[in-house]
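$ ./design --mode recover --in tokens.txt
reading tokens...
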């Protein structure tokens, strides 16, 4: 190998650190989501005696939605960092999530689509609780979009299963 080739490969390898700010930015997004979560929690608690049951349900589902999205961002940031930038040196920490270091790109893809389907399901449930305020057209679009996510998730899973089976043969 020539010196130029070695230098280019080292530079390319070191460029993986350009991804680190993206993953740090996702942690900032979790922080922003936390602020929105507490804002919604405040609205829920302040309206506990005056809100209708439907309003309370929508507020609770919004909290669930926020928690799912924050978890998704954390999974993407941790596994993306470990897969593409550098291993985290917290192996001996008792609170290290069991999945850390074990989520490959294919697993990350499936977790991502699974979380998107779950978030979409929560949004769809919120829409059905508030169905009186939405037109049939809007509800139809929401169902269609959710089904698109579900079908995409199933197709991703099938594709990965086929790829795994081909690797074993």
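writing sequence...
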């Amino acid at each position: 190998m020539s010196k130029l080739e070695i230098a280019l490969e080292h530079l390319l390898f070191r460029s993986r650190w350009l991804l680190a700010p993206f993953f740090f930015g996702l942690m900032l997004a979790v922080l922003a989501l936390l602020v929105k979560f507490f804002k919604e929690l405040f609205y829920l608690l302040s309206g506990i005696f005056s809100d209708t049951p439907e309003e309370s349900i929508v507020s609770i589902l919004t909290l669930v939605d926020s928690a799912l999205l924050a978890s998704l961002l954390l999974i993407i940031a941790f596994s993306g960092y470990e897969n593409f930038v550098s291993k985290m040196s917290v192996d001996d920490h008792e609170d290290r999530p069991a999945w850390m270091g074990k989520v490959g790109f294919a697993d990350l893809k499936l977790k991502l689509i699974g979380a998107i389907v779950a978030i979409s399901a929560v949004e769809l449930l919120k829409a059905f609780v508030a169905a009186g305020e939405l037109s049939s057209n809007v509800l139809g679009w929401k169902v269609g979009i959710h089904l698109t996510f579900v079908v995409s998730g199933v197709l991703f899973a099938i594709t990965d299963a086929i790829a795994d089976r081909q690797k074993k043969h």
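exit 0
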